[in-house]
C-alpha cells in the first residue's frame, strides 16, 4: 500500500505537495468516494480519480536530456515552438521536464513522469549544485568575480555564494568564458548575475547537474538515468 498523495505524484499529475492540496479540496476520489484525509493509503487495485478522471499508474521513468538552444522547457507551446517532449515521442509515459532551462540556454535537463521526484529536485532547500559555462561580454575583473563568489543582490535578494572560475579570455572579440557553479534555481539567475556585474551573457550552457554530466551526448540526445543515479540524486537533496 502507498500513500494517496504519493500515488498521484508518481502518476505525473502534480507534485506531492499539490496532491495534498487536491485531497484537502475534495478533488480526489478512491473507488468512487471523495477522500479528504492526508496519509490515506491505497492498494494497487484501488481506482484513484483526480477531478473525476481516473489516473493511470505508470512506472516511473527518468531521463537525462541534452536540451539544445531554441527549445522550450515544457510539454507544449501555444506558439508552436519546439518543446522538450518533441524529443521523446517514442516514450509513452506522461513525462515533463524537471524545472526549466531558458529558451536560449542549452545543457542538462532532467525529464520524468515522477512528480514526487521532480518536487524533490526543485525543492527550495535543495543543495544540488549546477555548473554553467557562460560566454560573456568583456573580461570580468577579479573584484567582479569575487562579488559573484560572495553573493550579489538580484531582484532585491542576495544570491548564495557561488563557485566561479575564469576559463579563458578572447581579446580579439572582447569575450570571456566563465564557469559558474550554484545550487539555487531562481528565474534567469545566471544571466542576471552576470548582468549585475556588467558582463551580459551571450551564450549559456548547463554542463553539470550534481554528479551528472553530458558525456557521450550531443544536443537533442538523451539517456535513461540508472536506478543508482536516481537514488543518488534523491540522497543529495537536503530538506
Automatic annotation (TrEMBL):
GO MF annotations in UniProt: isomerase activity
Keyword RNA-binding in annotation: yes
Chain ranges of the RNA-binding S4 domain: 2-65
InterPro entries from the UniProt entry: PsdUridine_s_RsuA/RluB/E/F_cat (IPR042092), PsdUridine_synth_cat_dom_sf (IPR020103), PsdUridine_synth_RsuA/RluA (IPR006145), PsdUridine_synth_RsuA/RluB/E/F (IPR000748), PsdUridine_synth_RsuA/RluB_CS (IPR018496), RsuA_PseudoU_synthase (IPR050343), S4_RNA-bd (IPR002942), S4_RNA-bd_sf (IPR036986)
Record EC number: 5.4.99.-
SUPFAM superfamilies with a match to the protein in the record: Alpha-L RNA-binding motif (SSF55174), Pseudouridine synthase (SSF55120)
Signal peptide span: none
Gene3D superfamilies: Alpha-L RNA-binding motif, Pseudouridine synthase I, catalytic domain, N-terminal subdomain, RNA-binding S4 domain
A Pfam entry, by short name: PseudoU_synth_2
Taxonomic superkingdom: Bacteria
Swiss-Prot/TrEMBL keywords: Isomerase, RNA-binding
Record family assignment: Belongs to the pseudouridine synthase RsuA family.
UniProt protein name: Pseudouridine synthase
Amino acid at each position: 500500500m502507498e500513500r494517496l498523495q504519493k500515488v498521484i505524484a508518481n502518476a505525473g499529475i502534480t507534485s506531492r505537495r499539490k496532491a495534498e492540496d487536491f485531497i484537502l479540496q475534495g478533488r480526489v476520489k478512491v473507488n468512487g468516494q471523495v477522500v479528504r484525509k492526508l496519509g490515506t493509503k491505497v492498494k494497487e487495485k484501488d481506482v484513484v480519480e483526480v477531478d473525476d478522471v481516473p489516473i493511470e499508474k505508470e512506472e516511473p521513468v527518468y531521463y537525462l536530456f541534452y536540451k539544445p538552444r531554441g527549445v522550450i522547457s515544457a510539454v507544449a507551446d501555444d506558439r508552436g515552438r519546439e518543446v522538450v517532449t518533441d524529443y521523446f515521442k517514442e516514450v509513452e509515459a506522461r513525462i515533463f521536464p524537471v524545472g526549466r532551462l531558458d529558451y536560449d540556454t542549452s545543457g542538462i535537463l532532467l525529464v520524468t513522469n515522477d512528480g514526487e521526484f521532480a518536487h524533490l529536485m526543485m525543492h527550495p532547500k535543495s543543495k544540488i549544485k549546477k555548473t554553467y559555462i557562460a560566454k560573456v561580454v568583456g573580461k570580468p575583473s577579479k573584484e567582479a568575480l569575487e562579488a559573484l563568489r560572495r553573493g550579489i543582490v538580484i531582484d532585491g535578494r542576495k544570491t548564495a555564494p557561488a563557485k566561479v572560475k575564469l576559463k579563458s579570455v578572447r581579446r580579439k572579440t572582447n569575450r570571456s568564458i566563465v564557469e559558474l557553479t550554484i545550487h539555487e534555481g531562481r528565474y534567469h539567475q545566471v544571466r542576471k548575475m552576470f548582468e549585475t556585474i556588467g558582463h551580459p551573457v551571450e551564450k549559456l550552457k548547463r554542463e553539470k547537474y550534481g554528479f551528472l554530466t553530458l558525456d557521450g551526448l550531443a544536443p537533442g540526445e538523451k539517456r535513461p538515468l540508472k536506478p543508482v543515479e536516481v537514488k543518488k540524486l534523491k540522497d543529495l537533496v537536503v530538506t
